[in-house]
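Please check this one:

***
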Amino acid sequence: MAKKGNRQIFHLECSACKSRNYVVQKNVINTKDKLAFKKYCKKCRKITLHNETKIK
């Protein structure tokens, strides 16, 4: 079985309107830098850059 504990849950926040639209998991050992994706924002109704933020 695979080990659990290396993966953590993060939000993806829209850079334009600051709404948190997506939840992703990331392996913190293999991926050191922050995630940034171009994804669709429901509030802006267009494709914008979404950056990784921690869950509060």
User: Anything to note?
Assistant: Residues 4 and 14 are 29 Å apart (CA to CA). The chain has a mean pLDDT of 91.
